[in-house]
Fold:
Amino acid sequence: DTAVSQTPKYLVTQMGNDKSIKCEQNLGHDTMYWYKQDSKKFLKIMFSYNNKELIINETVPNRFSPKSPDKAHLNLHINSLELGDSAVYFCASSHSLAGAYNEQFFGPGTRLTVL
Amino acid sequence: AQSVSQHNHHVILSEAASLELGCNYSYGGTVNLFWYVQYPGQHLQLLLKYFSGDPLVKGIKGFEAEFIKSKFSFNLRKPSVQWSDTAEYFCAVNHGGATNKLIFGTGTLLAIQP
Structure:
């Protein structure tokens, strides 16, 4: 059973295009995240949603727009793609129990290449 | 700003050698600490975590890590590595709070020679 899944796994596109990456989790979690891993393998959080509400937005260009239609899904739409957007994008999910750290479970990643 | 430093960017060891990967963080308050592993072509998996209590934590696959508060460190260790341990290892910090945000180090690529 896949816990956190992402589609597509690979995405190759031209500069200026608009693309979306989808994420779904079947763990019953209420919080989902998007992370970006650059070419040097540095991982940085981009967004977090809790119960469809945005709770983290880490100074990401507004060309990136996350959308959470329900607790189990968090999609990432990117407008006007730039070369610097090339990276691996990881989705993650967790519970959000108050007063505790909640382990994040990661998806397999989507490798985006902008030409 | 909080940060996590992993000093070893690339480590090459022979099988059966002992491993220690360094991790230091900059946050002065209460922290939760983690080591994640990313095998080639795979997603991140949690190796071990520290929240409180015994500063020596045991994880999966024979890994352990020691939290030394005075040194702001959380080094990962394994007494005898295997070829299958070849992977990228990430240290991460979370200081609690509502956002549950993880801050990652830059990763250490570990290559084990058979």
In short: The CA atoms of residues 36 and 89 of chain A lie 5 Å apart. Chain A has a mean pLDDT of 90. Chain A has no helices and eleven strands.
